[in-house]
Protein 1
Amino acid sequence: MTELVTGEAVALELRPAKLPSRALAVLLDLVAAVIAYILVTVLVVATTASLDEAAQTALAIATFLLVLIGGPIAVETLTHGRSLGKLAFGLRVVRDDGGPIRFRHALVRGAIGVVEILLTFGVVACIASLVSARGRRLGDVFAGTLVVRERIPAGRGGFVPPPPPWLAGRFGGLDLSAVPDGLWLAVRQYLSRMQQLDPQVSLHMARRLADDLAARTGSPAPQGIPPAAFLAAVVHERQSREARQAFAAARFAPPAAHRVPVEAGAPPAGRPVQAQPWAGEPQTSSLPLAPATPPRSPLSSTPVPPRDESPAERPATGFAPPA
């Protein structure tokens, strides 16, 4: 990885392209340019057969300059540094500040490339790329450009290390509502990559992020605690709170089977609203219920035992005849 500083003083970490991938990309571009040059030459010769020898020579030189030199320059200008070979191998030409190249950058690279690639068969370009710390050839040095990799092999997701055990739960009283999502993302990215950074750079970034986090929460970082450990403990506290909220919401939410569907629209005027039975309860009849105590005979004070009647023999009106 190499660090490029943009015009806004933002440091970018880009991966310069290695010599093998660049050589293969240039070879593919040359093959495409030669094929296009042969086709254009055949077309020009067929259409200018009646011209004299001097005119044909001039057209041949113009065709060579336009196709083999002007073609790559035009392609890199229009695609912002992505030629056919670079697109196939996931490469791109950028400026020293990480921005897209323009016509003047492509013109300088193409003009010097005629000498170090075409006339010397790529020997000068290979030597310059091997000597340069970032793999730049002479055209890149004079144009102020750099060839970087756009497609980086995807690795495992960033693992945020847990805080030390003696810090777990210590920051439960912090107010984390004012911390923006961008700061949380920056803290997580730093914690997942802090082992890959230079120790001095890692310490400086940890202090800066810890100061920003303390300013957002309104509570300064405790003295004697490393900034990286403080960041890990606060991130762990936020994750714990989100987990508790999610568990509480899932615990107190009623199951889907016990939710009563609400029908759209109001009931017609004059019709009483009937209460819907709760799901899972037995359906009760709308007829009046029989008295709970058995009826008594007018001649005797002893209750009359109820008769065993089948459901079909019971009256449908709900009227209970006297004993």
Note: Residues 3-12, 262-266, 272-290, 297-301 have pLDDT under 50 and may be disordered.
Protein 2
Amino acid sequence: MSADIPGIDPLDGLRAPQDPDCDVFLTGTVFLDIIFTGLDSAPVRGTESWARGMGSSPGGVANMATALARLGLHTSLAAAFGDDHYGEYCWDALEQGEGIDLSMSHTVPGWHSPVTVSMAYEGERTMVSHGHEAPGPTVPDGGPDFPCCPPRARAAVASLAPGRGEPWVATAARNGARIFADVGWDETGRWDLDALVDLEHCQAFLPNAEEAMRYTRTDCPRAAAHALAERVPLAVVTLGAEGAYAVDSASGQSAEVPAIEVEALDPTGAGDVFVAGFVTGTLADWPLADRLAFAGLTAALSVQEFGGSLSAPGWEEVAAWWQRIRTFADQDPAALRRYAFLDDLLPAAARPWPLRRAVPTIGFRHPV
């Protein structure tokens, strides 16, 4: 299990005997991420660049799964793993290191793990990836191909793509899971909401500002959020350095929370961490503004470390930040009040800031 503050369960008081064991289900591709940091500039063609830092960790969908698990949610991941050393490392890091349920995952003989090399510089990153699609196993009784039968869960996280539906999304929704979805860049250039066939099953849709405006043909991300709220119960548009804006169509409520200013080391996985924070607050029935604030906080904490799953904060990081930020004499009282809801969640004492998690690196068989 991840080394976090014992006893913090964001769903404490909400769990009932008849509830599913799984809080959040997700599926996707796990990459081995190799991250280089400390580059002064982008690599120059025909030259060799030396990085001052490097780490490796599970990436891809593992970023989201790790972020959810570190926030105390019982997380189930369905993914393919290669039977190479990379796959074995990623499996152990997720199952043993983070306590993620991999009973829906499988190892593919003879298939090598997808790999992403990420280079972080000037607050951005450049990535090069390689991999081949993994064949999914067939359920022994002749049932649908994996993962069409997801476990019963409180929620599921899906990644929507134009013209492509995933059968498991409808199944999960029918079984009572609340579907949270993000979306990637539309390579077709059509930006047609009707092409996102699983959107009808979603409770919450969380695109970034550019995606939201293109899909809604608007020139303002806040207007885009209101337009999206006509299609889904909850629309959340991330605004980058400006924070996030959300519209709850059921209550008619909207909320906007500014971003926390931080020195970004590596933004890899920050979007995944934001979604994980928002899912956590939603399942815990927090007010909409608190959910946005918490999601933005977790994302801000993540970009101050390198890597995707490596940088996902848990309650220990949140507690250390909250304890430290209140010691600054020049803090805006209104900004502090925005995060006052943390007082009811966190212990009075926390480890001093800054915190550093262990950095997984392939090659070491024992902690160093």
Note: Residues 288-302 form the longest helix (15 residues).
Protein 3
Amino acid sequence: MDADHDSDPDHAPRRGRTAAERWSAFTASPFLPAVVLVFILAAAAGLFAGSYTYNMANPTPHRIPAAVVGPTGTAHARAFVDGMEKALNASLELHPYPTDTAAQHAVEQQEVFAVLTFRGAGVDFAVAGAAGASVAQVLAETAPAVGRAVRVPVRISDVKPLQKGDPRGLALFYISLAAVIIGFVGAIQLSVHARGLDPGERIAFTVVYALLGAFAIASVVDWWLGALHLPFVESWLILAFTMFTSGMVFTMFNTLMGRWAMLPTWGLMVLLGNPSSGGAVSWPLLPSALGQIGRWLPPGASVNAQHTAVYFGDAQHVFPFAVLAGWALVSTGVFWFWRHRHPGGRSAEAL
């Protein structure tokens, strides 16, 4: 009896799993992506806080374009300009204009952030709050102190003030931020809850939620809250263009990277794009590399186009729209060309 029992394979002692087998089982379980996500989310939280803090905690001017009217070779003019550059630890990039009207036109074209007019022994220092609230604040605080130090009378004015409902110039940044984030969150939700959409249908629904979402943003800010008086149709379409572009950027990465598409989308649009957009801190006060990069990313292009539409409507530029169009076309093209790799579609759902 004992011999038969010992030889029965059903009663043989169980062999413990090897390390390789345990690892294989772990990688095939939902625990691996969950563990990876824990570390990714922790890193993303730190990077998110760090990117905004680095760019906004201590904005420092590097090069500030300014118009100048009147003689700049006098002793008091040289003393004032030198004192400003020393106090700012930056260079005032002076552009001479023959008249006040010509200098004001340069402000309207967003070519300069201030106008220095030298008359007699004093200087009229006109900032343009709408051109960059943070730059205007720095200049308006620095100029009187420099004037007292070099004994040059200074009169401060604002030739392009912000709207009363947006005294710090942040409202345009916030509505653009909302369009960027809701844009790719909408694409994420389509991929989860409307997985069976075919490529053309996915693009069409991205257009629809972009138009409706942008209308909601503009109507709440303007009609309901009255925080900004928008050129409604233009602002609405800029926001819709931003939302569509942001949604298609995620869709492109979802096509190329599958479930990890949120990583490059978040990095490009939020960690890098929003702090460098010039919306919260004007580009002259950002680290120089980020100030240049921001113009070429969708958040910066959106802020740029919206800012010009609201405050400089007669001087709208093609560049921000070209940036948004470039990202939208590339993202949509990549998605369409490799649409067979996208995890959605009715054929994939059937599987």
Note: The CA atoms of residues 162 and 225 lie 17 Å apart.
Protein 4
Amino acid sequence: MSEDGREQTGHEHVPSRQRRRFPGISSRAYEHPADRSALVALRKLSGFDTVFKALSGLLPERSLRLLFLSDSVRVSERQFSHLHDMLLDACYILDLEKVPPMYVTQDPQPNAMCIGLDEPIIVVTTGLVELLDEEEMRAVVGHEAGHALSGHSVYRTILLFLTTLALKVAWIPLGNLAVMAIVTALREWFRKSELSADRAGLLVGQDLRASMRGLMKIAGGNHLHEMNVDAFLEQAEEYESGGDLRDSVLKILNVLPRSHPFATIRAAELKKWAESRDYQRIMDGHYPRRSEDKDTSVSGSFRESAASYADDVKSSKDPLMKLVTDLAGGAGDLGGRVRRGFDGFRSPTPPNEGPQDSQPQDGE
């Protein structure tokens, strides 16, 4: 670094406190296996860029850019300068070649997104800016920078377009079914991409508790003194393991229309990754480089994705996933559990706890 603490690169700002930087890092380093396998396959497709550039003429990208330019505030050294510094920090740490434009738009709903086909743009709402403190916001900006580095903005833009298209062709039965099948698949993909971007946010902020607090505030609002990160994570454990097969089906139905995983699940997944060897290796400077992306094996990426889904099923405490594991393993007690009905698949009470309170729980 130079004497004034700035490395001689294309970026003119470095993090406000000492953080590790990841020169030349590939997005494969932090992407969820299911997200990574799809991205690797698409990047390998011959003519992929040409197709999407042609498609961009059909998408409302230009309209969106003009809309944000005309009716939002563009982040810069003169406007929302603290967000501008965070954005430069994030691009510096992840070594993005070009800093994407960033806008703040008036909306009380806390939200952020990265969209665009040719060039990604980042949009954050006033509700989010007012909700989060500096370190929490830094993780969000890193999250969106991770979307930009991975190229997720392309697929989010297409998802927005297809969702709109599905509404327009809803009166055509087969047409609507075909579009909705694609939308459902894209939503599953995008939910995994959100987990990837959460990891990128952690690499930028390098403060796990701040990332957790941000997710907790998005779920429960600006009442941090009334909330507790550990208790929030316990909710994710209860959601994952509680109930019976009926609850498992309801979980699937609840998540299908969503583009993002639930906040408690995101927090639990991020904590799990932060405690993994993969994260530690990145922090130690051992990670895949962008220069190696062209040599990545598509089949190898799909095998990693399949293995990840298999591990999730095996380690899951969800009753339906446990049933799948039992069927695969030929569980001897399966017939008895079926005869006992739904209660036969209810998660057992932990041995150190007594029977469940007979009083109804919240929300019942």
Note: The beta strands are 73-74, 102-105, 112-115, 121-125.
